[in-house]
Amino acid sequence: MKKPLLVNWEKKAKERQKLYKQFLQRVQKNQVLKRQGAFHEEAFNQVNCLSCANCCKRYSPRFKTPDIKRISKLLGMKAGQFIENFLQEDQDGDFVLQQTPCPFLGNDNYCSIYEDRPSDCKRFPYTDEDVLVQRVPLTLKNTTFCPITYLVIERLMETIPKP
Q1: 74 shares its domain with 118
Q2: Paired strand residues for 90
C-alpha cells in the first residue's frame, strides 16, 4: 500500500513546481542542510528504487572521463568505441546516453554495471547533497520523476518556515 504522501505524487509534483521553485530559491541553505539527511533516509525507507527505476528509464546521467574509462574497460571496449555505441554530447557538452531507458538496465530493474556505474548514478537523487539547493532546475526536474526527491522536498517544505 502506498504511503499517503506518495498517492498521486507525480501529478502533485508537476502541479507544485512553482511552489518548489519559490521555496528552493528563498530557503536558507543551512536550514536545508540541517534536515535533508534525515529526510533522505526517511524517503529511502519508503521507496524501493528497484520497483521504480524512473531514473534509469527517463534520465541519463553525465558520463565523465573516469566513468567512460572504467565502464569501457569493464565491457572490454576502447573508450572511443563505448562513446560511439552508447553516448552522445548534450547541449552542455556532456556525454549522456543516446537512448532511454538506460541500456544497462535489466527487465528486473537491476543495473548490469551497478558496481561501476557513473558517479551521477551513485549520487542520484542528490537529496543528501547541497546540489538540492545549488542546482534548482535539476532538483525541480528530479521531483517530476523521482519519488525520493519529491518526498524530501515536501518534507523540507513542511518543516522549514516560509522565508
Answers
A1: yes
A2: none
Q: How confident is the model at residue 73 (pLDDT cuts 50, 70, 90)?
A: very high
Does 161 sit behind a cis peptide bond, omega within 30 degrees of 0 on the bond before it?
A: no
HSE at residue 118, side-chain half, CA atoms within 13 A, is: 20
Domain with 104 in it: 60-123
Number of helices (H), then strands (E), in the chain: 11, 2
Looking at the structure of the chain, the number of domains it has is: 2
Q: Are residues 109 and 141 in the same domain?
A: no
Tell me the percentage of the chain whose pLDDT exceeds 70.
97
Based on the domain organization, do 70 and 110 belong to the same domain?
yes
Angle, CA 116 vertex, CA 137 and CA 149 arms, to 5°: 30
Give the mean model confidence (pLDDT) for residues 83-90.
Answer: 98
For residue 153, give the 3-state DSSP assignment.
helix
SS (H, E, C) 6-65: HCCHHHHHHHCHHHHHHHHHHCCHHHHHHHHHHHHHHHHHHCCHHHHCHHHHHCCCCECH
Q: Structure pTM?
A: 0.92
